[in-house]
Design a protein that fits this description.
The protein is mostly helical and 324 residues long. Among the domains are: 83 residues, no CATH class; 97 residues, Cytochrome Bc1 Complex, Chain D, domain 2 (Orthogonal Bundle); 31 residues. Helix content is 52%, strand content 10%. The longest helix is centred in the N-terminal third of the chain and has 29 residues. Bound molecules: heme C. Heme C binds next to α8, α9, α10 and α11.
Length: 324
């Protein structure tokens, strides 16, 4: 049996697989997992190819049988010649790279000593090895001049450049993979596009209980300094993601909103801070001071022995001194 058709069928199967995979791929998963019917398409392609191979094989056989004896002989000769010269280029290149003498010519390079019948051949070094060796010499010379004479860069610089590059790539990646944020990594978004997206999420989902302005209704006022569940982007993100206290009406939104959307609406909520909307609900909860805020931004002034004024980012907030 000829091996040609079998090899061609295998190649078609692999190529078909790769082409479908390449054209159809959308994400991390293989298209064949997402669209299992593609296996059927690939199967049909392979079956058609096998059928075509069988037809061509049969046709060749019939044509061969109709040849006259001398033509048949010529065909056989040409076929044998083509077969012998298959992969000739590879075989020749391999021989050149190894550079060994064929067995018939070994007599020319045999050394004239003989150890218990073991003889030694004086083959040349294989050309692949010799050229590889020359390449290392050239490499060493260039390396020496570049790094020892002209001090191009050293390991520390190389490391720092790699870290800087990696940071840029991480930033890029974060931009495309916004949904990686969670409560530990979320940061206040200030881009207008993010805040606008947050605004429409808020108006669509939250305004019913918090009012469009954030002034509060069923839910608390979101624009004042007081927070029941903690202010700041991390706490607000957590409240939106996990919900409020049981039975209060604030559900967990993590199954309805993507992490990026929760970050947007959380940032939008914080952007409402200090907007003093009309008909605002009474403050609930505690004044929230950001423990990570730079100290210069929080100024504490004693008004008298019972009251202090805390100035956060130029906004005064007055509260009672709580005695321990
Ligand atoms: C069904 C009414 C309702 C909806 C809808 C609702 N909330 Fe609330 N929200 C509440 C209530 C009630 C609370 C108070 C929870 C508590 O006391 O534990 C609250 C609390 C909060 C808090 C914490 C306030 C604080 O003082 O700590 C934030 C932030 C918040 N909601 C944001 C949102 C956002 C953003 C949405 C929309 C995605 C939303 N809420 C939708 C009712 C709602």
């Amino acid at each position: 049996m000829k091996t040609g058709p079998i090899i061609r069928v295998i190649i078609i199967a692999i190529l078909g697989y790769l082409v479908l995979e390449f054209l159809g791929t959308t994400g991390e998963q293989s298209v064949f997992v997402e669209q299992p019917w593609l296996w059927a398409v690939l199967g049909v392609i392979i079956v058609f190819h096998i059928a075509a191979e069988a037809c061509i094989g049969a046709l060749e056989r019939v044509l061969y049988l109709t040849l006259k004896p001398e033509a048949r002989e010529r065909y056989d000769r040409e076929y044998a010649f083509a077969k012998a010269n298959q992969f000739k280029w590879f075989k020749d290149t391999y021989k050149k790279l190894v550079g060994g003498k064929p067995i018939e010519q070994e007599g020319e390079i045999i050394l004239d000593h003989n150890y218990d019948g073991i003889k030694e051949l004086d083959n040349n070094l294989p050309p692949w090895w010799v050229y590889g060796f020359y390449a290392t010499i050239v490499f060493a010379a260039i390396y020496l001049v570049r790094f020892e004479v002209f001090n191009d860069y050293d390991q520390v610089e190389e490391y720092e450049a790699a870290v800087a590059q990696a940071k840029i790539e991480i930033e890029e990646y974060k931009k495309t993979a916004k949904d990686l944020v969670d409560v530990n990594t979320v940061q206040l978004l200030t881009e207008v596009s993010d805040l606008n997206a947050g605004k429409s999420i808020f108006e669509g989902n939250c305004a019913a209980c918090h009012k469009v302005t954030g002034a509060g209704g069923i839910g608390p006022n979101l624009t004042d300094d007081h927070w029941i569940l903690g202010g700041g982007i991390k706490n607000v993100f957590r409240t939106i993601s996990e919900g409020g206290r049981d039975g209060k009406g604030m559900v967990a939104w993590k199954s309805d909103l993507k992490p990026s959307e929760m970050a947007q609406v959380a940032s939008y909520v914080l952007s409402l801070h200090g907007s003093n909307p009309p008909e605002a609900k009474e403050p609930e909860g505690e004044i929230w001071l950001d423990p990570d805020a730079p100290v210069e931004e929080v100024k504490v002034e004693v008004i008298d022995s019972t009251q202090i004024q805390v100035i956060i980012e130029d906004e005064p907030v007055t509260g009672d001194i709580i005695e321990d």
